[in-house]
Amino acid sequence: MQCDLEEPQSLEITSVSLDPNPPQRGENLTIAASGILKTVVEEGAYVDVEVRLGYIKLLSQTYDLCEQLEENDVSGLRCPLPADEYDLLKSVEIPNEVPPGRYSFFARAYNADDTQITCLTGEIVFPGY
């Protein structure tokens, strides 16, 4: 779901779906998302990511957004991304070893000039074995 809605954002997310939902250990998770990008995303764009397991912060990292799009082959996207409508599809493997618990994530993406592209937050629960 989108967050920081009181802040101006250049990406309007129109849909997000997960398959399977909820995600399962040892299976591929396919993420499909659609949205309308209202400004160009330039080289130098970045995303701040935080992942928590309950109250424990597992990850707090800043990534080069353009580099991540290219390295992870996200629908063949490359920067600069023109303002346009986009449909994204990405599959990732969920390892069998994921410990049970409630995982929450926050991702805030910014353009090279520090204007916010979008903010996403979500939660995934992996039950006990």
Overview of this protein structure:
The strands form 2 sheets. Strands 4-3-6-7 form a 4-stranded antiparallel sheet. A 3-stranded antiparallel sheet has the order 1-2-5, with no helix packed on it. The model has no long low-confidence stretch (mean pLDDT 94). It has 1 helix and 7 strands; from the N terminus they run ββββαβββ. The chain is 5% helix and 52% strand. The protein is mainly beta. β1 (11-19) and β2 (28-37) form a beta hairpin. The two termini are 28 Å apart.
Secondary structure elements and pairings:
Blueprint: E1 11-19, E2 28-37, E3 46-53, E4 56-64, H1 65-71, E5 84-93, E6 101-110, E7 116-126
Antiparallel strand pairs: 1-2, 2-5, 3-4, 3-6, 6-7
In short:
With 129 residues, the protein is mainly β. The protein has one helix and seven strands, in the order ββββαβββ. The protein is globular, with a radius of gyration of 15 Å.
